[in-house]
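Structure tokens please, single chain.
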Amino acid sequence: MNPLIAADAERAQAAATALSVNVNKVAQLRNARHLGIPSVVKAATLCLQAGADGITVHPRPDERHIRAHDVHDLAALLRGWPRADYNIEGNPFHNLMPFIRAVRPRQATFVPDGEGQFTSDHGWDLAADGERLRPLIDECRALGVRVSLFMDPEPAAMAAARALGVDRVELYTEPYAAAHGGAGQGAQLARFAAAAAAAQAQGLGVNAGHDLNRANLADFLRAVPGVLEVSIGHALIADALELGLPETVREYQRCIRAAYAPTR
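Here you go.
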């Protein structure tokens, strides 16, 4: 069996969701001065020591947070953590592919960001971009890199994602986060659950990310079964200003465990 597929099957059987910590905001704070602090590698080390399952970076072309040397420094760190996933995300039509070729992370997440985009705010339009993505997906898989596509929660799009040969999709969760605690929460959860089920029916693994936090994470995972990984950055780093990085990682892992705890 393909080792990437086997790892996904093992994760699903364990009924647990992996926590990947996005360290972009650590780099953004460091870049405000020329002192080299805080250290992105040290922050990632603290997260892993506290129980994070992986590290995510999104190196944008303008290097406003993660810079090229960070990608390589973190790759060196993660070689000492073989059970942790290294996830490099970004637009494969911009600056992503040279990093993938150089460091061969466990996972590449393709995100359709514009070069000057403030933050990720939509998934791929596969009718428009699918054929351009196909050779890059093939290249990643030939390198032994798992490929995930950043997608809106649209069940009808999952067959097209599967046809391109990707391993996973990452559901863009900002619409759920914006609705959490309000009248629209149930409808959004139903929407995401349907998209996840459609992806899983196609044999795709399901990741999720964007604006997930301690308040909304467990509710999401209870309603959307089988999520293999959540990637969390902004909220987690903000929480760490109050709690410290190790305790914050442990808090997020508690949220994940709470989602899987038996209900009475």
